[in-house]
Design brief:
This protein has about 280 residues and is an all-alpha fold. It has 13 helices and no strands. Helix 4 runs parallel beside helix 7 and helix 4 packs antiparallel against helix 12. The longest helix is centred in the N-terminal third of the chain and has 32 residues, at about 65-95.
Length: about 280
């Protein structure tokens, strides 16, 4: 075997094993969701005998998954819109405008990326409780924005730093103010970054459990992921129903990954290179 082929096999085998390890939990969950409780108890690893869609219907209707799904859609949509607006404006200012303290501000934003949420969760909860934002949509949206804004600003700053300064100079000569340059020139040019960063932020917010559990303690305002965790205690003896809830929560993420995997990859690597 030639050295090139051997290198390919050395890379391909671990990657294939990693892919199987990633796919297997999803396949196992889908298989369990299609079983009856009796089939699961008799042999949890065997294939289902027939498709039992009633498990998904039960998880969707009997425990309020439809309401949790709507809560997640509302919160994620508002959070991503606010993150993209604030992140793109801050990224443009830090990446292309030079003002006193901009470098120190950018370093401070980078430092915020290394602060775990567990460190700030108690002060955040007290502040939100003091302002009456606990168990409200605006409270959870603001918590998501506070948590994920440094990452969003970092990616937008890295993107806008690659834009040639001549474009901004030409726009200013044409009479555009700084706000005009951002709105008419930089924002349309940043459409690829908006899509990539928006997808990543949406996935972060959708998959979150800890922040949502802290900010939305009541059952009525739970997000989908928190609702799925509550299924485990409510249906501890009905694993197919619990697996159906997990599958419902995973389907939107899988759809996003399937159709926007290129944009997700571009967003992950947006800050790794500089032209």
């Amino acid at each position: 075997m030639s050295g090139a082929r051997l290198t390919k096999w050395v890379i391909a085998v671990p990657m294939a094993a990693l892919a199987l390890a990633t796919i297997y939990p999803l396949v196992f969950t889908a298989n369990v969701a299609m079983k009856t409780r009796r089939e699961y108890v008799l042999d949890r690893f065997s294939l289902f005998d027939s498709l039992h869609w009633e498990n998904i219907a039960k998880a969707w209707t009997s425990v309020g998954m439809s309401r949790y799904f709507l809560n997640s859609v509302i919160v994620v949509a508002c959070s991503v819109a606010l993150l993209l607006l604030l992140g793109s404006m801050a990224g443009f200012a830090l990446g292309r405008l030079r003002f006193r303290g901009s470098s120190a501000l950018f370093v401070g934003i980078l430092a915020a990326l290394f602060i775990p949420f567990q460190v700030i969760m108690v002060p955040l909860a007290r502040m939100m409780a003091g302002t009456g934002l606990i168990d409200t949509y605006p409270g959870l949206v603001l918590a998501y924005v506070a948590q994920f804004l440094p990452f969003t600003i970092f990616l937008f700053t890295s993107f806008y730093a690659t834009v040639p300064p001549e474009i901004i100079d030409a726009a200013r000569i044409d009479g555009n103010t700084v706000y005009g340059v951002y709105w008419r020139i930089m924002l349309p040019m940043g459409a690829p970054a908006l899509l990539s960063v928006g997808v990543l932020d949406a996935l972060f917010c959708w998959n979150d459990v800890l922040i949502s559990l802290l900010m939305m303690p009541s059952a009525e305002h739970r997000t989908l992921m928190v609702g799925v965790t509550s299924l485990r205690g409510q249906y501890s003896d009905d694993i197919p129903t619990f697996a159906s809830g997990v599958l419902i929560a995973a389907i939107p993420v899988l759809v996003v990954y399937f159709f926007l995997q290129r944009q997700i990859a571009d967003g992950v690597t947006a800050g790794s290179t500089k032209g």
